[in-house]
Write a structure and sequence with these properties.
Elements (H helix, E strand, L loop, with lengths): L16 E5 L2 E15 L3 E12 L4 H10 L5 E12 L5 E7 L4 E3 L4 E5 L3 E6 L12 E6 L2 E7 L4 E5 L5 E4 L3 E5 L3 E6 L17 E6 L2 E5 L26 E2 L3 E2 L2
Antiparallel strand pairs: 1-2, 2-4, 2-7, 3-4, 5-10, 6-9, 6-13, 7-10, 8-9, 8-18, 11-16, 12-15, 13-16, 14-15, 14-17
Length: about 250
């Protein structure tokens, strides 16, 4: 049999994580380690592999129930090669160091089992449209495979060069950054988006680190008013600063 399809053979690499193609991740396991992956993300494997549901502590289950933020993971062990993908999204491998990374759990495809995850409050008073009121903080030393809708933009943040990003397009950022949220409007009522620009909410990042943005965004609510309680859950409010406080 002959076909141009045979040009799409597996990548040969000694690395643990290899981007097989922009939308497919290849992970090599040696039998003594494990990788945690989004449930249902396995598309193929070679060798002897086992897939089990990842245990969640009571505090993790409670945080997930209260905030809606968290990871539904499976633990993959064995010796061989396993391939992961999700809805043909673009895949990017990130090395997490001591500084840590904050990310929306919806964009996590796989990560090393040695990493620690914790739900944190991005904004303690008002929800943030699109990204939600809580995010996932990843700390430790290891690799994380992130997903984006389309090819992303990595923005460097420095003390003399802060970055603004649409709250519905931001994927991840350095946990060391200070984050401020503000509505893109001149009206205190925030009855609609700013004029006829179609823009809603933005996050400002200050400090030293990075901010990862994807070329896609979710339409946030357009009819809400300033307030706490149920109104606050719709991400309407004045500028506030991220306290990076852990949920408990």
């Amino acid at each position: 049999m002959q076909s141009p399809l045979f040009a799409h053979t597996e990548q040969q690499s000694s690395e643990r994580y290899t981007v097989q193609n922009p939308q497919l991740l290849r992970v090599s396991l040696t039998g003594s380690d494990a990788v945690l992956a989004r449930k249902g993300a396995m598309v193929a494997y070679q060798g002897l592999m086992e897939f089990d549901g990842e245990y969640q502590s009571s505090s993790q289950r409670n945080a997930r129930a209260r905030t809606g933020e968290g990871l539904d993971l499976m633990r993959c062990t064995g010796q061989g090669t396993v391939y992961f993908a999700n809805l043909a999204q673009y895949i990017h491998v990130v090395d997490v160091d001591h500084a840590g990374m904050t990310v929306d759990s919806a964009y996590v495809l796989a990560l090393d089992s040695s990493l620690h995850t914790e739900v944190i409050a991005v904004d303690s008073q008002y929800g943030i449209s699109g990204t939600g009121k809580y995010q996932l903080n990843i700390t430790g030393s290891g690799k994380v495979a992130l997903m984006t809708s389309g090819q992303p933009l990595m923005l460097q943040v420095t003390p003399d060069k802060y970055v603004n990003a649409d709250a519905d397009a931001i994927v991840a950022w350095s946990s060391s950054l200070r984050v401020q949220m503000q509505a893109q409007t001149h009206s205190s009522g925030v009855m609609r988006r700013r004029g006829n620009t179609g823009e809603g909410w933005e996050l400002s990042f200050l400090g030293e680190g990075f901010a990862l943005v994807q070329p896609s965004e979710v339409m946030p609510p357009q009819h809400a008013q300033i307030g706490q309680g149920i109104r606050g859950q719709y991400g309407v409010g004045s500028q506030n600063q991220n306290q990076n406080n852990a949920w408990n």
